[in-house]
Amino acid sequence: MTTDATPPGSADVDAFLARLSEDVRAALQALRRTIAAAAPEAVETINYGVPAFKYRGRPLVSFGATKDQCSFYVQSPAVMEAHEDELGAHDTSKGTVRFRPTEPLPDALVTRLVQARMAETDRPTK
Q1: Is residue 54 a contact partner of residue 43, using CB atoms and an 8 Å limit?
Q2: Do 53 and 18 contact (CB within 8 A), yes or no?
Q3: Containing structural domain, residue 112
Q4: Do 60 and 51 touch, CB atoms closer than 8 A?
Q5: C-beta separation of 117 from 74 below 8 A
Q6: How many domains does the chain have?
Q7: What pLDDT was estimated at residue 7?
Q8: What are phi and psi of 10, to 5 degrees?
Q9: Burial of 1 (0-12, 13-18, 19+ CB in 10 A)
Q10: 66 in any annotated domain
Q11: Is 4 among the domain residues?
Q12: What is the pLDDT of residue 2?
């Protein structure tokens, strides 16, 4: 569940969102709140020209938009594959979920994907 409060974040992210159409901005602002709620320790930034969250100094997830669609960059083919059944109804590629601003991703799905990325980051490397 999202709240109406905007997470404390980067003025750069606010500026990125301000350039978008109202419907796209609203959809990404909701996605932003959901990510921030799922990963309260993550730091918001701009990375590769799009809003992103870093967790423990490492890239976690990011998001962006084109004129008519939004993108949630999960940044992990392994996480995408692990949630393949839940993502089946969505337009996906290797590490991205695309959606229309009028059909936002369910908060619960976003939360699960963010938490899976955090768990992936927390796993010891070999």
Answers
A1: yes
A2: no
A3: 11-122
A4: no
A5: yes
A6: 1
A7: 52
A8: -75, 135
A9: exposed
A10: yes
A11: no
A12: 40
Which pLDDT tens digit goes with each residue over 46-80?
999 999 999 999 999 999 998 889 999 999 999 99
Q: Is residue 1 included in any domain, yes or no?
A: no
Length of the chain as a residue count: 126
> Does residue 5 sit within a domain?
no
Q: Give the strand order in the sheet containing 50-55.
A: 43-47, 50-55, 58-65, 70-73, 96-99, 91-93
Phi, psi at 13, each rounded to 5°: -70, -45
Instruction: Scan for tokens 């932003």, then name that residue.
Output: 32
Residue 10 to residue 88: CA distance in whole angstroms: 33
The domain spanning residue 37 has which CATH number? Answer: 3.90.1150.200
pTM for the whole thing?
Answer: 0.89
What residues have CB less than 8 Å from 110, skipping those under 6 apart? 31, 34, 35, 38, 72
